[in-house]
Amino acid sequence: xxxxxxxxxxxxxxxxxxxxxxxxxxxxxxxxxxxxxxxxxxxxxxxxxxxxxxxxxxxxxxxxxxxxxxxxxxxxxxxxxxxxxxxxxxxxxxxxxxxxxxxxxxxxxxxxxxxxxxxxxxxxxxxxxxxxxxxxxxxxxxxxxxxxxxxxxxxxxxxxxxxxxxxxxxxxxxxxxxxxxxxxxxxxxxxxxxxxxxxxx
Length: 201
Hints:
46% of the residues lie in helices and 15% in strands.
């Protein structure tokens, strides 16, 4: 499976102006609407989303982007390919992510997946999603690597992936400076950790 992600930053002034216009129109529709309950709920949902995005941009300094995610699933066996596609779609939809297959746009999708930085216009319209700056952070496609020295002492856990951290600060080939700084609240066993290092030395 290959994943390709594109971002397009939007003009903040234009976006806020369009959101304000949309909020005003939907507010009028909600007041005067005689449509069925489902239509009213959808309009109210859109209205609340628009207000949230505008507030985040105006108050918290967020920026709005268009995000495009393309996933290519491949296999040499047709049945396995169908199984993998259904599995990816099932996982995505269980997380609230709507998926679309690139019917009659396979060539454009393939070119988009290549390392050419070409987000083809033929498929952009179907893949576009709004996202704020805080949301983009979660799409960063790398995870924090674990720190594990074979002869190291247990320091704690990595806050990003909960992996265990073992550091051998006396390994002069890996760490040129053997100094270490320990932070923690009262009663967090800082002194015991420090003594553990001294015992190892």
